[in-house]
């Protein structure tokens, strides 16, 4: 297994590495904005991953413990990640591509580069004004039931998984089309397996509902657990085994509050983009249905017009204009009819 390991030996080296990484990130963002199509995100990701400042793979050095100075430890195959993002981005609309870029750039990279380091000293630098054994641990568990980092990591996993539904559905269509083509001598079951029609349209819409619901649910969980999105400097705790009400202090509360608000706002924007994409898909589908209905009405009118056209038109001699005041003489009987 390949471990991504980037230890920072001193503050100077760490600052230089982060500066180069952020510069590569900026270049990747510019390339993505300049080439906003289905291949832009994987290409930008390749530029970012191939940058000299990005942490390198290492199969010999084991990953350091959390909070020991490395800003990113991961066991994953980046080529597989790039292929996955390419597949998801290929079948997305414009709103979906913007959503994917926001998740990757403004949430995943911020989570990896900065947020983990901010919360790395969360337990170590949590101090309470007591020496009672166990009091600090109990108060820490009460104030931080779940770490922000672990909650955000779980949120990112849940939010990105629904996109795999679309990719899996497209792969299923492609396999069915291959089998159908092999059995029916070159004819295809689907004109375009990636076209959002029929069941794939519902799968895509359902994935958007799941993504927006997961983001909203995690925002509510974070708000419910911590009674808001604020990070107080001082917290009071009176749980056992604390002898009395003690004061507990959180390290870097302002910085943690800023990152919390940033992640909350990013999640809210992603929810908004998912809702916009749902409205876009439903509106486009309704527009297509109305267009088909109008076309059917036009064809029905044309068919009726063609039926009436089969009746031969009357000539001008058949139209006799009569004077309403004139009297019509009785018909003259033939000589054979008279007795």
What this model shows, in words?
One gap junction consists of a cluster of closely packed pairs of transmembrane channels, the connexons, through which materials of low MW diffuse from one cell to a neighboring cell. Pfam families: Connexin. InterPro entries: Connexin, Connexin_CCC, Connexin_CS, Connexin_N, Connexin_N_sf. Residues 214-281 form the Connexin cysteine-rich domain. The strands form 2 sheets. This protein has a 3-stranded antiparallel sheet, with no helix packed on it. 18% of the residues are buried. The longest helix is centred in the C-terminal third of the chain and has 57 residues, at 253-309. The protein is elongated. It folds into 2 domains: 1-90, no CATH class; 93-164 and 194-292, Gap junction channel protein cysteine-rich domain (de novo design (two linked rop proteins)), CATH 1.20.1440. Strand 5 and strand 6 form a beta hairpin. Helices cover 59% and strands 5% of the residues. With 339 residues, the chain is mostly helical.
């Amino acid at each position: 297994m390949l471990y991504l390991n980037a230890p920072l030996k001193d503050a100077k080296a760490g600052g230089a590495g982060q500066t180069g990484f952020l510069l590569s990130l900026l270049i990747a963002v510019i390339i993505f904005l300049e080439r906003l199509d289905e291949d832009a995100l994987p290409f930008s990701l390749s530029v970012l991953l191939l940058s000299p400042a990005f942490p390198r793979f290492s199969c010999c050095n084991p990953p350091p413990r959390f909070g020991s100075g490395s800003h990113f430890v991961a066991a994953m195959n980046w080529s597989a990640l790039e292929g996955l993002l390419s597949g998801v981005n290929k079948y997305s609309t414009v709103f979906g591509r913007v959503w994917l870029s926001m998740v990757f750039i403004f949430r995943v990279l911020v989570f990896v580069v900065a947020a983990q380091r901010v919360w790395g000293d969360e337990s170590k630098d949590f101090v309470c004004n007591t020496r009672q054994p166990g009091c600090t641990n109990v108060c820490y568990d009460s104030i931080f039931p779940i770490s922000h980092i672990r909650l955000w990591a779980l949120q990112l996993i849940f939010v990105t998984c629904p996109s795999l539904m679309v990719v899996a559905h497209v792969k299923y269509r492609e396999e069915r089309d291959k089998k159908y083509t092999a059995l029916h001598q070159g004819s295809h079951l689907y004109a375009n397996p990636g076209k959002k029609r029929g069941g794939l349209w519902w799968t895509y819409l359902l994935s958007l509902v799941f993504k927006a619901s997961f983001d909203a649910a995690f925002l509510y969980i974070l708000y419910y657990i911590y009674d808001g999105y604020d990070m107080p400097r001082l917290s009071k705790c009176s749980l056992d085994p604390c002898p009395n009400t003690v004061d507990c202090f959180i390290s870097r509360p302002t910085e943690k509050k800023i990152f919390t608000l940033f992640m909350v706002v990013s999640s809210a924007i992603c929810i908004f983009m998912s809702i916009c994409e749902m409205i876009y898909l439903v509106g486009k589908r309704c527009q297509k249905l109305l267009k088909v209905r109008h076309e059917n009405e036009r064809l029905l009118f044309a068919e009726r017009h063609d039926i009436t056209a089969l009746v031969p038109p009357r000539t001008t001699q058949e139209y006799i204009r009569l004077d309403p005041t004139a009297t019509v003489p009785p018909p003259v009987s033939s000589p054979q009819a008279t007795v």
